[in-house]
Amino acid sequence: MIRKILIPILILASLWGCSEDYNPKPRGYYRIDLPEKAYKPFEQDCPYTFEYPVYASIEKYKRNDSVECWNNVVYHRFGAQLYMSYFKLDGNLNRHIEDSRSLTYTHTVKADGINEVVYNNSDKKAYGLYYKLKGDAASQIQFYLTDSVNHFLRGGLYFNTAPNSDSLAPVLDFIAEDITHMIETLEWR
User: How much is the pTM?
Assistant: First the structure.
């Protein structure tokens, strides 16, 4: 008796359960909790100053020869570093601008596009270019700032992982705001 009732119920349940089309869910990424925005002054004996995020640290670039005022803004939480190289100008502004452009455009192999934004702050005598690279380039943000006479500062953001613009997008946008803040607060000494 139970068999006669159970078999039709199972058949109806299996037919009813198979009526919907199955759509696999797209591959997702982990949620990233981003900290509150807050900044503090960069206070080292360098010919420039700016404000950087409190959730990042400044590490002096270490190399065999003593390069002064080359610093990295390190985002340990996100596995990212903003490499910053400083050069004292000696009539070689065009060479540094061309080097910066060349280094940025080496990423065109993987980049889907490059947006250039001109930066011009005559009050602080800071001029430059901000490059935003699209796609899976190794570095998706590059910039340089100069006063056109004495100082030249170049920066490039790199992540300690294989580039994947989809998974890095929230962190990249978050750090891009920080870089914009650093650029806008930069002053030459």
Answer: 0.81
